[in-house]
Amino acid sequence: MERITLGGPSPLYGGLIMGHACTISANENAPSFHGLILTPTLIVITDGRPTETRLLSGPDVQDESHMEEILSDVATAVREIDGANNLIFFIGVGDYNKSFIEHTSAIIASKL
User: Fold this and answer.
1) b vs e for 58-85, b when ≥16 Cβ sit within 10 Å of the residue's Cβ?
2) Are 59 and 10 in contact (CB under 8 A)?
3) What is the pLDDT of residues 28-53, one digit of tens each?
4) CB atoms near residue 55 (< 10 Å)
5) How far apart are alpha carbons 96 and 51 in whole angstroms?
6) Rounded CA gap, 1 and 63, in Å?
7) pTM (predicted TM-score)
8) CA dist 82 to 8, 36, 56, Å?
9) Are 48 and 105 in contact (CB under 8 A)?
10) What SUPFAM superfamilies is this protein classified in (predicted)?
11) Are 30 and 38 in contact (CB under 8 A)?
12) What's the CA gap between 112 and 108, in Å, rounded?
């Protein structure tokens, strides 16, 4: 992880949707172990500071004027992943936005 170069936008929604597509594919051929079906798990490593959902290039700067849209998009993706009975965990790294990660994780926990 130390060798990863930081920079550029980080549209979390896009990453979640791509991860969800992978879980759908993996679920089609889900392995089993002693009769237990092993379901895919998404582990999201994030600073909790997603950039604008539709930003394709430019600096990795969070635009507060788009936060409502970003939160809505991320919440939609998390609900879709959770609704497909896949596990999803968020791990904060660096100077991460704890409230964003807690808010996003609460979407999953709210159904318990």
Assistant:
1) eeeebeeebeeebbebbeebbeebbeee
2) no
3) 777 778 888 777 889 998 888 887 76
4) 19
5) 13
6) 26
7) 0.75
8) 28, 19, 26
9) no
10) vWA-like
11) yes
12) 8
The pair of structure tokens assigned to 55 is: 């930003």
Backbone angles phi, psi at 71, to 5 degrees: -60, -40
Q: Give the residue from 10, 90, 17 showing the smallest Cα distance to 51.
A: 10
In contact, 81 and 42? CB cutoff 8 Å: yes
Contact 9, 56 (CB under 8 A): yes
User: 90: which residues sit within 8 A by CB, 6+ positions away?
Assistant: 44, 46, 48, 101, 104, 105
